[in-house]
Design goal:
The protein is globular and about 65 Å long. With 496 residues, it is α/β, with parallel strands linked by helices. The protein has 3 domains: 194 residues, FAD/NAD(P)-binding domain, CATH 3.50.50.60; 107 residues; 129 residues, no CATH class. Bound molecules: flavin-adenine dinucleotide. Flavin-adenine dinucleotide binds next to helix 1 and helix 15. The site of flavin-adenine dinucleotide has 36 residues, from helix 1 and helix 15.
Length: 496
């Protein structure tokens, strides 16, 4: 007889785990607090305009083929992927520009104009990353984290050392290129890590490599359409999705999870419970206090969390001739003093920012002749005390003005609709601890066995999936985590 797994939350991690569990023959019921599936990528509608709210960059499309195939489905039957190439246009602090592209000759030609030895340095870096990918992706990023001792195996030391764990992402790229523009071009777009390259682990140099190797993609209809597509696939495989169904607590019998209780008091018995809700937020709210183990407020107060993001979603009555993805890397990204490195203060003079103009690839998000714009500025998480109710209007005005730097001239007069997210929105409406949207920071001390485990240490039959567990925040890594969560559930339950 198949066994019932209850899933709390339907962000990317919950969607992927549900589909895999259904493929394994489990019965699955999912309880999502919001009125739509997708979590941070659920999207929003403002009048006649449709927006993505979280991810805009899809890497390694093969992970999605594999995910749908795990349930016996074909990804292309549910969602179309479109390649975006050149995939990011960067404007630097010194008014130089670079188009990142998978066409390596075109890329090398651009950087060769900066310094004649850079194309050769780039080829060397690619060779090194090809090897790091071989050595590291499958055994480390794709597999569950082991215990610290589990990594201390003599035969694995050479592979481990090839990642130079003593280096930051910044040091990794500086040693390879010695040119700050290229260093930040390749390290900063790893923005879903939400931290400065001088603080994040060098292993994430794999991300820009994977973009070069496999390209950057856009799901047709946006990431909200990807979320909906996964939701449809789950229902096609017999999974039951309950929207507007916030979970109040995980039900325990002794030390074992036996179901969940909804905010409205209904109780649902289950053989296993998988929680996709934000780890720091959920462990302190829906897990009974007696079974939280070390995960107390004091524990999280000592941890480093990522920045948050200020978001503008603008519906425009015109179209611009600009690329899909652009980043403005201001002089401030190079500063290595505290508020700039750890995003502990709001940058009100020259912040870096990212814009997504999906109209460059498809026009379905807005009426004919109109377009939409998604703007993301890294900002402090709520622990740093910015008063957004006082500041959001002036910051919005400042950001709209800055957008001219990336080709959005006369923007103000073309805005038809607008909505904004601050760190408070992420915390209050998306249930994200501190509004730190990229989760626990990705420092070496908060990676692998130092991230929360997939299998709860204190509660039998309770599992976690999402950006907090190994290997970390970002769709690609969360899809890997989901594979492991589904494997653990299958290993522990019979008949699923
Ligand atoms: C602005 C932004 C830009 C990003 N850009 C990229 C990108 O380009 N590429 C990329 O790969 N990644 C990107 N990311 C990261 C990626 O979106 C996140 O890592 C990912 O969405 C986190 O997914 P998750 O599975 O942890 O769950 P979440 O998305 O956090 O979903 C958790 C779900 O649980 C629900 N929930 C919470 N509490 C309860 C409860 N008590 N009961 C029921 N349900 C509950 C929530 O409503 C939510 O739907 C971006 C993120 C943001 C915010």
């Amino acid at each position: 007889m198949s066994q019932l797994v209850a899933i709390v939350g339907l962000g990317p991690g919950g969607l992927a785990t549900a589909l895999r569990l259904l493929g394994q023959g489990c019965e699955v019921e999912i309880f999502e607090a919001a009125d739509r599936v997708g979590g941070r990528m659920r999207g929003l509608q403002d009048g006649a305009y449709h927006f993505d709210t979280g991810p805009t960059i899809l890497q390694m499309p093969q992970l999605y083929e594999d995910l749908f195939a795990s349930a016996g489905l074909n990804r292309a039957d549910y969602i179309e992927f479109q390649r975006v190439d050149p995939y990011t246009r960067l404007r630097f602090w010194d008014d130089t520009w670079l188009d990142l592209t998978t066409d390596r000759d075109a890329l090398k030609q651009q950087i060769g104009e900066w310094r004649s030895d850079l194309p050769e340095a780039f080829d060397q870096w690619v060779k090194r990353l090809e090897r790091m990918y071989e050595l590291g992706y499958e055994p480390y990023l794709s597999q569950p984290a082991r215990s610290l001792l589990g990594y201390a195996r003599l035969d694995e030391i050479p592979a481990f050392l090839s990642f130079k764990p003593w280096e930051s992402l910044y040091q990794h790229f500086w040693k390879a290129f010695g040119d700050d523009r290229l260093v930040y071009a390749l390290s900063y777009p790893a923005k879903y890590l939400g931290m400065h390259p001088t603080l994040s682990a060098s292993v994430f140099s794999l991300i820009p490599y994977l973009e070069l190797a496999y390209g950057v993609w856009h799901p047709k209809g946006g990431f909200r359409a990807l979320a909906q597509a996964l939701g449809r696939a789950i229902e096609d495989k017999g999974g039951k999705i309950h929207l507007n169904s916030p979970v109040r607590q995980v039900l325990l019998k002794g030390d074992k999870a036996v179901g969940i209780e909804l905010e409205d008091g209904r109780q649902i018995a289950a053989d296993a419970v998988v929680v996709n809700a934000d780890f720091a937020q959920a462990v302190q709210s829906i897990v009974p206090e007696s079974h939280r183990g070390k995960y107390t407020k004091a524990f999280f107060d000592k941890k480093q969390f990522s920045c948050s993001t200020f978001m503008l979603h603008l519906g425009l009555d015109k179209q611009y001739d600009v690329p899909h993805h652009q980043i403005y890397l201001s002089e401030h990204v190079r500063r290595k003093d505290k508020p700039f490195v750890d995003d502990s203060a709001l940058d009100e003079t020259d912040p870096p920012f990212y814009v997504c103009y999906p109209g460059a690839t498809e026009t379905s998000a807005a009426p004919a002749g109109h377009s939409t714009l998604y703007v993301l500025v890294p900002i402090p998480h709520t622990g740093h005390g910015v008063n957004w109710s006082e500041q959001q209007q002036s910051y919005r005005d400042f950001v709209v003005q800055q957008l001219a730097l990336l080709g959005f001239e006369d923007l103000e007069q073309h805005i038809v609709t607008e909505s904004l997210h601050t760190a408070d929105t992420w915390q209050d409406d998306y249930f994200v601890h501190l509004g730190a949207v990229f989760n626990l920071s990705h420092t070496w001390l908060q990676m692998g066995p130092m991230r929360p485990p997939i299998r709860s240490e204190k509660v039998e039959s309770l599992y976690w999936v999402g950006g907090a567990v190994h290997p970390g925040s970002g769709l690609m890594t969360i899809l890997e985590a989901a594979k492991n969560t589904a494997k653990f559930v299958a290993a522990d339950l019979t008949g699923c």
